[in-house]
Amino acid sequence: MKKRRVLAILLASAMALSMGACGSDDKEEPPKTENEGGGNDTESQEVKATVIWRAFDDQFQSGFRIIMQNLEEEVGGISLDMQDAANDVSTAVSKLEAALTKGTEVVAICAPDRESTKTMMEKCDAEDVPAVFFNMEPMEETMEQYDNITYVGAQAKESGEMCAQALINYWNENTEIADKNGDGVLQLVILQGEIGQQDTMLRTQAYEDTLKAQGIEYEILAVDTANWDQAQALDKMNAWITAYGIDGIEGVLCNNDNMAMGAVQACLNNGYNNGDPEKFVPIVGIDSNIDALEAMKAGSLLGTVLNDRTNQSIAIMNVIKAVKEGKEITEEVVGVDCTVDGKYVWVPYVIVDDSNLDSILEQMSAISQE
Q1: What integer pLDDT is reported at residue 53 of this predicted model?
Q2: Which residues form the signal peptide (predicted)?
Q3: N or C terminus: fewer CB in 10 A for the chain?
Q4: Helix, strand or coil for residue 344?
Q5: How would you classify the pairing of strands 186-192 and 218-225?
Q6: Using CA atoms, how far apart are residues 243 and 293, in angstroms rounded to an integer?
């Protein structure tokens, strides 16, 4: 019964988010799978697919995997063999080689890093097995070189824009308390993910582009990497509080929620972000992990951006079926709100605010109980 309840929440949330992202008065339909509503026996034959995850123990990846596992039963016609790369390239490659040897028909890969995607794609192509990469985008030259490759993900730039916009909205709406030194300049710090990784670069650049586009006078006090990690982010934020004073930091933009929660903890340890609007450092993250959503509900985190794992999971599974059957990838085939651009399937981010916080928190809470 619990699994059915989780599936109902996931699909209802996916439908609601798709409606919000489309912003249209047209009649909306729930996310659908490619074989839903008919199809012949050949088309509905079960596809054997291997899914290689960067790391099972990562909070974002774990939630993503649970969603996909739950949807496997609901979707039907597909058998998923989940493999843990343990955030190690050699392990990921070894798992892929084993899957290819066993005769997997399609592989879906969230690689440990971008560089490894080339090697993994070479191995898939040598065995004429289609590859669907997700959450770690292959290099452009890799995408161009092969025909049997697809990427499903979200535009990193979009999440950076939304993240910065949340901070800008707070700054504009709370100027008297937000501008702690009264100089009219937003002094902020930035916590980055892995240096050189595409999401890190695009999200960080989008912060500045959005601040400039909105006409915000700002000063970046410091930028440093915390490698997507909460503990590292806590250490970096503590060092910045020591260097600039907690009132000297008027905003924190983080490339993901893990790092945002490290920054939140540093503020809490200094008696800030406990509900007093005069003692608040606005911090924004990306991913909508459950702890970030709960912190947002409690008022200790300003905001987060949903990396829509539910719709991405539906998209990945429908793309797996389509590439196995040799079908063209279209928005209709993908089955959720998205943009198909050649070999890329882009599922939009969703900014979390008062209108959808409760529903997204319910969705993530249901997943965490699995």
Answers
A1: 97
A2: 1-23
A3: N
A4: strand
A5: parallel
A6: 29
What is the Cα–Cα distance from 212 to 182, expressed in whole angstroms?
20
Phi, psi of 340 (to 5 degrees): -100, 120
pLDDT for 157-193, tens place per residue? Answer: 999 999 999 999 999 999 999 999 999 999 999 999 9
| 8-state DSSP, 286 | S
Question: 14-36 burial by CB neighbour count: b if 16+ within 10 A, else e?
Answer: bbbbbeebeeeeeeeeebbbbbe
Farthest CA pair distance, the chain: 69
Neighbour count for residue 2 (Cβ, 10 Å): 9
* Rounded (10°) CA dihedral 202, 256, 316, 350: -80
Angle at 141 between CA 138 and CA 145, to 5 degrees: 100
Q: Supply the DSSP string of 248-267, one letter for each residue.
A: G---EEESSHHHHHHHHHHH
For residue 356, which amino acid is it? N
Q: Which helix (H) or strand (E) holds 285?
A: none
Q: Report the C-alpha gap between 81 and 144 in whole angstroms.
A: 27
- Cβ atoms of 335 and 34 within 8 Å: the answer is yes
pLDDT in tens, 90-142: 999 999 999 999 999 999 999 998 899 999 999 999 999 999 999 999 999 99
Residue 351 is encoded by which pair of tokens? 């900014």
